């Protein structure tokens, strides 16, 4: 599932406020491992660390030049990367999550020798579970600390 109007690009420090707003959105926080509100200075420190880390890939996905979501991949070793995805609050309900995830996966595969992508999905997050399951992710471990572990082998 792709759209020619959707493209992933590298996040930059100029995206800090946008990414923080999406991260601090109440629905995004409910699905996260860390559910508290993050302050700007803390977020900026985190963002700078991510942007300078070769074992992490942080992308902003845009639809016709308008940011609609973000995808982050963290290298877990042995060709495996853990994914985290956030849609802009105003982009939810438009069927964009699979397109955003696919755009991120394509860029990851182009840049790295990725064998598989892992996802941790909160057991109460039916929308994320459906996203990953419909995108080819399979459950590989029982829920732990409220999060299911899913895995997709990349072709």
From TrEMBL:
Pfam families attached to this UniProt entry: Acetyltransf_3
Source organism, top-level taxon: Bacteria
Domain N-acetyltransferase: start-end pairs: 6-155
Protein name from the UniProt record: GNAT family N-acetyltransferase
Organism the protein comes from: Amycolatopsis ultiminotia
Organism placement in taxonomy: Bacteria, Bacillati, Actinomycetota, Actinomycetes, Pseudonocardiales
């Amino acid at each position: 599932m792709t759209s020619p109007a959707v493209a992933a690009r590298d996040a930059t420090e100029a995206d800090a406020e946008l990414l923080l707003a999406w991260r601090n959105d109440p629905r995004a926080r409910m699905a996260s491992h860390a559910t508290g509100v993050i302050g700007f200075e803390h977020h900026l420190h985190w963002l700078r660390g991510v942007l300078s880390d070769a074992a992490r890939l942080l992308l902003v996905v845009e639809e016709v030049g308008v940011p609609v979501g973000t995808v982050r991949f963290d290298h877990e070793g042995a060709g495996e990367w853990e994914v985290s995805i956030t849609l802009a609050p105003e982009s939810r309900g438009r069927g964009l999550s699979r397109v955003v995830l696919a755009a991120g996966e394509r860029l990851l595969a182009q840049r790295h020798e990725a064998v598989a992508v892992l996802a941790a999905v909160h057991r109460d997050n039916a929308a994320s579970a459906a996203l990953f399951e419909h995108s080819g992710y399979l459950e590989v471990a029982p829920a732990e600390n409220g999060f299911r572990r899913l895995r997709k082998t990349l072709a």
